[in-house]
Design a protein that fits this description.
Layout: H1 31-44, E1 49-50, H2 62-74, H3 86-100, E2 109-112, H4 114-126, E3 132-137, H5 141-149, E4 153-158, H6 169-179, E5 184-188, H7 200-213, E6 216-220, E7 243-247, E8 260-263, H8 266-279, H9 285-291, H10 297-320, E9 337-341, H11 349-360, E10 362-363, E11 365-366, E12 386-390, H12 395-412
Parallel strand pairs: 1-10, 3-4, 3-5, 5-6, 6-7
Antiparallel strand pairs: 2-8, 7-8, 9-12, 11-12
This protein binds pyridoxal-5'-phosphate.
Length: about 425
């Protein structure tokens, strides 16, 4: 073997430090600590009930799996266009027409690597370093972390019981009166961690407000399809120039397939295409080819049966909340989460979740992942007094988890 003539002479200077950017120093997911501990406990006790997971417990619909097999057997599966396979972009546009009665040109649909890929590309296309982007607190941490890593300035709007844990147009007005209109607003309905919906009139008002103030509304609609009492509305229904983000991860039960989408205002199509081509080249093509089948009637029947189970789980959970003294919670309108105020039990949700896991094997997510607390500036929305419970699993397991949880709360009261 020959070595490069200079190899032996290259050595790092003693002072060399890894080059790390401050923008890259994102907040950890605190639930990872719980997951790690749950993993350890599963090895030693084998009794973990993971009510902390943010994903369906079911595989992709059969029709999708069969389409994936056909694609693997019969297609080359090279790169697709940066904006995705035309057949899938058309299927997503058709879905928008069916679900919301809105005609969408498939040319405005970008297929992405999960909705996560859409957020990165859209944030990059829309926001300059230093731009202010508003989001709900509590809210999905990756918005805050991704926007922060890209240099945007995230302002969290305190959202509590009074507004169903969702922002309102009054909050936007109040922010703008003091600071001017923000560059962006990220909304999620149903939301993570709360599962609450933005009511139709409120979504219409915020969509209008954003259009009038030059604020880009990024509407995260990835939990659409999983609602219990009334359907979710799309920002597409209210005109304006919102970016609407969807995903095959949640309702479609395909988290690991990494396929999502964005419906883009015309002006964003080309910049997002260029960004996606550079960031990812394209979304995974096996998943794209298979995802077309996710809209088939057989798949929808299968997926709706999951939603029926989530609804049963939701009812069971809500019925049993008094047993552990929970009186305050976000409206459990959709998704598969309940965001519960446990201030009567703890003001340190992380320690409480760790103790619960230790005593019972039940894993919950501490609220601090969604609303980090600053001890110097306590806020009623601080996640230290909230936990998120996911009821995406099967009903018997949830019931067993609740039995253990209630027994633990009673024994430590
Ligand atoms: C509100 C919300 N948005 C986006 C995502 C990202 O999902 P994916 O990239 O799988 O589409 C998640 C995942 O949990 C989420 O909860």
């Amino acid at each position: 073997m020959t070595s490069h003539p200079h190899t032996s002479r290259v050595s790092s200077p003693a002072t060399a430090r890894p080059r790390l950017s401050r923008r890259g120093a994102v907040e950890p997911f605190h639930v990872m600590e719980i997951l790690k501990a749950a993993g350890r406990r599963q090895v030693t006790h084998g009794d973990v009930i993971p009510l902390c997971v943010g994903q369906p417990s079911t595989p992709a619909p059969r029709a999708v799996r069969e389409a994936a097999i056909r694609a693997i057997e019969g297609e080359v599966l090279g790169y697709s266009d940066a904006l995705g396979l035309l057949a899938l972009r058309e299927a997503i546009a058709d879905h928008c027409a069916t679900a919301y009665g809105v005609a969408v040109d498939p040319g405005r649909v970008a297929v992405t690597t999960g909705s996560s890929g859409a957020f990165t590309a859209v944030f990059l296309a829309a926001f300059e370093v230093g731009d202010v982007v508003l989001m709900a607190r509590p809210g999905y941490p990756a918005y805050r972390n991704t926007l922060g890593a890209l240099g945007a300035r995230v302002v969290e709007l305190d959202c509590g019981e009074a507004t169903g844990f969702q922002p309102t147009v009054e909050m936007l007005e109040e922010y703008a009166r003091e600071h001017g209109a923000p560059a962006g607003l990220v909304l999620a309905s149903p939301a993570n961690p709360t599962g609450s919906l933005v009511p139709a009139e409120s979504l219409a008002a915020m969509t209008r407000w954003c259009a009038e103030h030059g604020t880009l509304l990024v509407s995260d609609e990835i939990y659409h399809g999983i609602t219990f009492d009334e359907p979710a509305h799309s920002a597409l229904e209210f005109g304006g120039d919102a970016v609407v983000v969807g995903s095959f991860s949640k309702y479609y039960s395909m988290t690991g397939w990494r396929v999502g989408w964005a419906v883009l205002p015309e002006a964003y199509v080309r910049p997002v295409e260029l960004l996606l081509g550079n960031l990812n080249i394209c979304a995974p093509v096996v998943g794209q080819a298979a995802a077309v089948a996710a809209f088939s009637p057989e798949a929808v029947t299968e997926l709706d049966s999951h939603v029926e189970r989530y609804a049963r789980n939701r009812d069971l959970l809500v019925r049993r909340l008094p047993e552990w003294g929970v009186e305050h919670l976000a409206p459990v309108d959709g998704a598969f989460y309940a965001y519960l105020d446990v201030a009567h039990l703890t003001r340190d949700s992380q320690a409480w979740c760790e103790a619960l896991l230790d005593a019972t094997g039940v894993a919950l997510t501490p609220g601090i992942d969604f609303a980090p607390a600053d001890p110097a500036r306590p806020r009623p929305t601080d996640g230290t007094r909230f936990v998120r419970l996911s009821f995406a699993g099967d009903t018997d397991t949830l019931a067993e988890g609740l039995d253990r949880l209630v027994a633990h709360v009673r024994s430590t009261a």
